[in-house]
Write a sequence for this structure.
């Protein structure tokens, strides 16, 4: 069996976790990975223990693009970057004729909205990009598509997550991406914050961040498929504890609607408390990568949202 | 906008509920429906109030087949029939050149296994059949495919349902299908039972039926996509109260597995207690019908399980 060869853009917390998850899979291997400082390629497959072998580069994305025939799919594991960044990266890949598939764990509505504009270029290249394939959007918004089936009218979709990580600096970019959603903060402001400033902010709240009305793309991805008719019907928020691995609340997707008999009710999808953010992001992203390859195999190309398809099982 | 034209095979509880659900949809209409005694066709669309206009026929399926160019998709709403019945009906449709799509709310493993053999005939006819599109298999087994994403090893999938109906005789065939799973009963024995015998059976248990280790096709449909490697890892059971509309227990899909970090945990998908069996069966069946049309539009033909695709939203 030929393994699916994956390139990972981003070697932070999510990128590293991706290496660890793929190590447990028979069907796939990560053959390339990069961050802003360097990159790594190995036909045999890369484990997180190999990360110290990074080759420095001033244009590591460019190095990965040169290797474009050496992998089948790309997982974009880059949180907390300006909205334009990922579309500009995809443009570089398509310009150079890369015609594989992509999935990403992008979260912000504005970022995914911008990304959606790449549809024509992807189609031209016979490529597939599935956006928002992490936990939210991703796993939980897909669960909302399923839950919606029982109702003839959808009142709202509420996603309330709990994340517990014992050391915030394992997921520096992810934490910054969350801080960007706090009142008075922006993506750029969070990106520019020094670690000591983050520490100070977290000290004021005993290490906890409570986020409400987050700008998460679950809204546009659910509207796109018709689960809701208005973005305001989708709300995403949660509590992150940056000092304890135990989740402060159970991550829950609640969809409320009315059945054809006029009964109002709610379906719930609840993630097990022991599952980490990394497990709930990387797993779906890889399942959707396999789905993206399936789409390409069936000559279905372009830009899609994770709400449009079921992720497949990557064995 | 051209509405999706649906034919419904079966005019019992599920068939009637299908008429009521579709009445609430802008995108579809039911144009044909039949049961063993007769059939009805109306280009304008059929509501449950029209059922008294049934035209008697000795071969009502044959009458529906004659109308094959008048509808785009078929929903098979026929519980409690011998395993061979549905495949034989599909054979009649394919022999006469019907090339639309089908979904069914079949539940039994052996029935869906037999159905799967129709793949070649369906492909030849450029048709699509998605099997097991009700609640279980269907909504809940699809939820298991999503839940599986977070884990690298799946321990088990447990589906435990609660159904409450105030009058058992609204869903005579469905209740018989459930009785068939009780120790000492078979599909044929349940089918042959007189209503008075059913009454007597239900009197002994205060109207409740508790079913364990049911032969439900969630097992083969989850194995087919790789969620489990053994059918024994999937169990389906539940409690039906035939005297109260309130559910005796909340219908819950629990998937237990181990994450890449070695953490054991369970994700849960819980259906709202106020949602009826009909809402949780018909909604998914129609969502999968729209998915089946999408597959046909993309020239992807044959026999599929509901675990392979996300249902779409039928507006």
């Amino acid at each position: 069996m030929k393994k699916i060869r994956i390139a990972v853009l981003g070697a932070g917390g999510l990128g590293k976790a991706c290496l660890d998850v793929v190590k447990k899979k028979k069907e796939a291997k990560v053959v390339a990975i990069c961050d802003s400082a360097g990159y790594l390629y190995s036909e045999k497959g890369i484990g997180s223990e190999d990360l110290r072998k990074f080759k420095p580069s001033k244009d590591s994305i460019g190095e990965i693009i040169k290797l474009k025939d050496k992998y089948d799919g790309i997982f974009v594991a880059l949180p907390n970057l300006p909205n334009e960044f990922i579309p500009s990266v995809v443009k570089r890949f398509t310009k150079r004729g890369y015609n594989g598939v992509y999935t990403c764990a992008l979260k912000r509505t504005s970022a995914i909205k911008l990304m959606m504009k790449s549809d024509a270029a992807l189609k031209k290249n016979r490529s597939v990009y599935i956006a928002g394939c992490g936990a939210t959007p991703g796993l939980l918004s897909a669960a909302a598509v399923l839950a919606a089936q029982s109702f003839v009218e959808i009142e709202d979709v509420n996603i309330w997550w709990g994340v517990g990580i014992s050391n915030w600096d394992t997921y520096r970019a992810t934490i910054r991406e969350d801080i960007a959603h706090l009142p008075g903060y922006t993506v750029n402001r969070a990106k520019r914050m020094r670690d000591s400033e983050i520490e100070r902010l977290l000290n004021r709240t005993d290490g906890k961040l409570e986020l409400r009305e987050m700008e998460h793309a679950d809204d546009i991805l659910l509207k796109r498929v018709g689960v809701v008719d208005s973005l305001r019907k989708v709300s995403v928020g949660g509590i992150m504890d940056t000092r304890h691995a135990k989740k402060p609340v159970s991550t829950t997707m609640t969809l409320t609607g009315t059945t054809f008999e006029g009964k109002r009710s709610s379906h719930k999808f609840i993630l097990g408390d022991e599952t980490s953010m990394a497990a709930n992001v990387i797993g779906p992203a890889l399942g959707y990568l396999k789905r993206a390859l399936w789409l390409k195999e069936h000559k279905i190309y372009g830009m899609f949202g994770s709400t449009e398809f079921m992720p497949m099982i990557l064995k």
Notes: Chain A touches chain B through 54 residues (CB under 8 Å).
